[in-house]
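Checklist before submission:
- one chain only
- standard amino acids only
- sequence pasted in full

Submission:
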Amino acid sequence: MSDPNAGPDHIWQSAQAMIELGFESTPEVVVALRAIIDDDSVNTRARHGAAITLASLDPQHVPDAVAALRDIATSTPWPAWWRTVVLDLARLGDNVGPLARTHQPHHEAKIKDLDLTIYAVQKGCPRQDSNLRHTV
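Returned file contents:
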């Protein structure tokens, strides 16, 4: 993670590997993940992954992860990414109703399905850190 030539995908994946090896509480991991989620020039995949990984480390990181995910959801032009991010926001306990009902033409076709899925996530799946750890 200290390689100055490493890109955000590599840094995020390195942070994930360190977490899996039991080094999740190291400041280097948290700093690296925060740097990725705070940089809106980083690609969506890396920002999304870093936000989910950061949120899984400690509940104190959830607000920052939610802020990054909301930024991704409001700026991504890709419906599949938008849906994934909105569902992750719901898993993190964020109120995504207003976001899910935004009138973005390329998203409107999926709003009904998404509303039902969000409802199921928020009502049927208690938030647990193990549910947040995944890769895209």
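Reviewer check: DSSP finds eight helices and no strands in the chain.
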